[in-house]
Task: inverse folding
C-alpha cells in the first residue's frame, strides 16, 4: 500500500524516479495542485506559470522509495509549442480542468490528443476536475467527466487544492499504477532473463505495459484495483 513521504526529498536511496506532467488550460489550478502535493501549500495569489516548472516529492510504495518528479506545464496557448517537448519521458499525466468553467473541460479532448501525440502511448493518465470547494458554481456535471473518462480509459477524480481534497489520492493513484506496471514488467523480465533486469530508475515510458484502468463514479479510488485489472 502507498504511504506518504515527507514534503521534500531525504537522503534515502531512491529506487524509482517517475516523471508526471500536469496539463490543462490556464488557471484551472495545476500549480496549486502541485504545491499542495509537493509542499502542502496553497497560495490565493498564485501567478500564472511561465514555461515549465517542476517539483519533487519522495513517497514509499510497497517498501520502495519512489521520487515523483512533477512537471507543471503552462496552460497559456502561446507556450504550448514550448512545453510539448516536456511530455517526452513522462510515465504519468494529470489532465486538469476547472469544474466551474465548462470551457476548460471542453478543451480536455484537445489536451488529451496533444498528450497522446507527444508522450509514450502507454502513459498512465488521470482526469482531474479541480475546485470542488466551489460546488455552488459547478458548470461541469460529475457524470459528464465520468463518461468521458470511461470512454477514454482514464482514471478520474475531483479535487480541491484549496481544501486539500483528493490531491494526495490523485497523485498516489497515478504513481502506484505506474509502480505496479513497472514492477510487473520487471518480474516478467526477470523470469525471461534469469534476473537480468531489476527495478531501477525509470525515466521513459518504454517499460510500461499500457494497462488502463477505469475508476467508475466520482471522486473515488477503488482499493486493490490491480487485482481487478491484471488477471489474464
Result:
Amino acid at each position: 500500500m502507498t504511504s506518504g513521504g515527507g514534503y521534500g526529498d531525504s537522503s534515502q536511496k531512491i529506487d524509482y524516479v517517475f516523471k508526471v506532467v500536469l496539463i490543462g488550460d490556464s488557471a484551472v489550478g495545476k500549480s496549486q495542485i502541485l504545491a499542495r502535493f509537493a509542499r502542502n501549500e496553497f497560495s490565493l495569489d498564485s501567478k500564472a506559470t511561465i514555461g515549465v516548472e517542476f517539483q519533487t516529492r519522495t513517497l514509499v510504495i510497497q517498501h520502495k522509495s519512489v521520487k515523483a518528479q512533477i512537471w507543471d506545464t503552462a496552460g497559456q496557448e502561446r507556450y504550448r509549442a514550448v512545453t510539448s517537448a516536456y511530455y517526452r519521458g513522462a510515465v504519468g499525466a494529470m489532465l486538469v480542468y476547472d469544474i466551474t468553467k465548462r470551457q476548460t473541460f471542453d478543451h480536455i479532448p484537445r489536451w488529451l490528443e496533444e498528450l497522446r501525440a507527444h508522450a509514450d502511448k502507454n502513459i498512465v493518465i488521470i482526469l482531474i476536475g479541480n475546485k470542488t470547494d466551489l460546488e455552488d458554481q459547478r458548470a461541469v456535471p460529475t457524470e459528464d467527466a465520468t463518461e468521458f473518462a470511461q470512454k477514454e480509459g482514464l482514471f478520474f477524480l475531483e479535487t480541491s487544492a484549496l481544501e486539500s481534497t483528493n490531491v494526495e489520492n490523485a497523485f498516489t493513484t497515478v504513481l502506484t499504477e505506474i509502480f505496479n506496471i513497472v514492477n510487473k514488467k520487471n518480474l516478467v523480465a526477470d523470469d525471461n532473463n534469469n534476473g537480468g533486469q531489476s527495478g531501477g530508475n525509470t525515466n521513459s515510458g518504454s517499460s510500461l505495459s499500457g494497462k488502463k484502468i477505469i475508476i467508475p463514479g466520482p471522486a473515488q479510488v477503488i482499493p486493490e484495483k490491480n487485482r481487478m485489472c491484471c488477471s489474464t
